[in-house]
Design a protein that fits this description.
Deoxyribonuclease I, Chain A, 35% helix, six-stranded mixed β-sheet, elongated, 9 helices, alpha+beta
Length: 356
C-alpha cells in the first residue's frame, strides 16, 4: 500500500469525489494522486538502477540506456529531487532505492569536482589547444575572431565552418587591433567543413567524410611535430559513429608517429560506450584538469531556432591526447560567439621523454 500521512487528507472535502454505481466504496482523488506519485517514483528509481547495470554490461545497445547515460547529470539531479519527499515522508525503502543509483552517478563524476593536482609545466613546452564547433549558420565571425585572439590558442580545431566563413575568419584574424598582421597558418578541409588553425606551420595529411568526418594534419611545434585529428562524427546512428571512431582510433590515431591530439565535436558524452573506448587509449583534458560537468551544448544562443530559451545540458565536445602529454588546465569557455556550441580549451605540456 502507498499511504500518506493522515494530516494530508484533512483538507479534502467531506463528500467523496467518486462513487460506484451501487454507491458502495469511495475513491479519494488525492489518494489517487498520491498513489500515482509514489508509483512513478518507485518506477523511476528501479528503471535508473537497471539502466546503470545494463550500461556497464551491454553498453549502449538499448535506447533507454543511451538516453540515460547521455543525460546522466540530470538523472542525478532528478534522483536527488525524489529523495526529498521520500525522506520527509519516511519511505525508507524508496529512499534507499533512490540513493543507490544517485551514489553511483555521484561517485562517477567525483574526479571532476575534486581539486586539480596536475603538475606544473615547469620549463616544458606548453601548447594551448582549443576546439570549437563554429556552426555553419553563424553570422558572428568577428566575435569568433576576437575570442581566438583573446585566448590565443596554439592549435585551434574548428567544425561546421564553410568556405566563406573560413575566409572571413582568416581575414579577421590577420588584422590585429593595432593594425599589424598576425601570422596564422590555416588548413581547411572543405569536404568535411573543418579547419585547423595554428601559430605554427600546418601540413594537411588527409580528410575523410566516411570515417568520423576527420581532418588530419601535422603541426610543427617548438617541441616537435604533433599529429592532430579534428573530428565531427554525425549525430544519430550511434553504432555507425562508434564503428567509425573505432576504425580511426586503430588505423590512424594509435599508429601515428609522435604525440597525438584528437579533438572536436564527438556528438557523444563522457559516459557513453564510445567515450569509454577512446579513454582506454587516450587521456581526456577535462577529466584530467577540468572542473565541473563542463556542458557545451546547446549554447545560450540560437538553440531550437530561438523559439525556446536554452542552456547547456550535455558535454559532447572533447579534447583527447596521447600519453606524450599531460594536461595542466582545461575549461569550457562561456562565450558561444553566435554558435550553438561552447568552445573547449586545454593547456597541454609535453613530457620530457615521449613514449608511445
Amino acid at each position: 500500500m502507498f499511504l500518506m500521512p493522515k494530516f494530508l487528507f484533512m483538507a479534502t472535502p467531506g463528500a467523496p469525489l467518486f462513487r460506484n454505481k451501487q454507491g458502495r466504496g469511495t475513491i479519494d482523488l488525492l489518494q489517487i494522486l498520491c498513489l500515482w506519485f509514489w508509483t512513478c517514483l518507485w518506477l523511476f528509481a528501479l528503471t535508473m538502477s537497471v539502466c546503470l547495470i545494463l550500461g556497464w554490461t551491454s553498453g549502449d545497445r538499448l535506447l533507454l540506456v543511451r538516453l540515460t547515460r547521455y543525460l546522466l547529470p540530470w538523472v542525478l539531479l532528478s534522483l536527488l529531487a525524489g529523495l526529498i519527499p521520500a525522506v520527509l515522508f519516511r519511505r525508507v525503502w524508496l529512499a534507499l532505492a533512490l540513493t543507490g543509483p544517485a551514489l553511483v552517478i555521484a561517485f562517477s563524476y567525483l574526479p571532476v569536482f575534486l581539486p586539480n593536482h596536475a603538475p606544473p609545466p615547469g620549463d616544458r613546452v606548453l601548447l594551448k589547444v582549443m576546439s570549437f564547433n563554429v556552426w555553419s549558420e553563424n553570422q558572428s565571425l568577428l566575435q569568433v575572431a576576437q575570442l581566438i585572439r583573446e585566448k590565443a590558442p596554439d592549435i585551434l580545431m574548428l567544425q561546421e565552418i564553410t568556405s566563406g566563413q573560413i575566409r572571413e575568419l582568416t581575414l579577421a584574424l590577420e588584422k590585429s587591433p593595432d593594425g599589424t598582421r598576425a601570422g596564422w597558418n590555416v588548413a581547411y578541409a572543405p569536404q568535411v567543413l573543418q579547419a585547423v588553425v595554428s601559430r605554427y606551420p600546418v601540413t594537411p595529411l588527409r580528410s575523410s567524410l566516411k570515417i568520423a568526418k576527420v581532418q588530419a594534419v601535422r603541426v610543427a611545434t617548438p617541441a616537435g611535430e604533433v599529429t592532430v585529428f579534428n573530428v565531427h562524427p554525425r549525430r544519430g546512428n550511434w553504432k555507425g559513429r562508434h564503428r567509425q571512431l573505432a576504425t580511426l582510433l586503430q588505423e590512424d590515431v594509435l599508429t601515428a608517429p609522435g604525440p597525438v591530439i584528437l579533438g572536436g565535436d564527438f556528438n557523444t558524452t563522457d559516459k557513453s560506450q564510445t567515450y569509454r573506448m577512446l579513454s582506454r587509449h587516450l587521456h581526456n583534458a577535462h577529466w584530467e584538469a577540468g572542473r565541473g560537468f563542463g556542458f557545451t551544448y546547446p549554447a545560450y544562443q540560437h538553440a531550437w531556432n530561438e523559439f525556446l530559451p536554452a542552456w547547456p545540458l550535455v558535454r559532447i565536445d572533447h579534447i583527447f591526447y596521447s600519453q606524450d602529454f599531460f594536461a595542466v588546465t582545461a575549461e569550457t569557455l562561456k562565450e558561444p560567439c553566435g554558435s550553438d556550441h561552447l568552445p573547449v580549451m586545454a593547456s597541454l605540456a609535453l613530457k620530457e621523454k615521449p613514449k608511445r
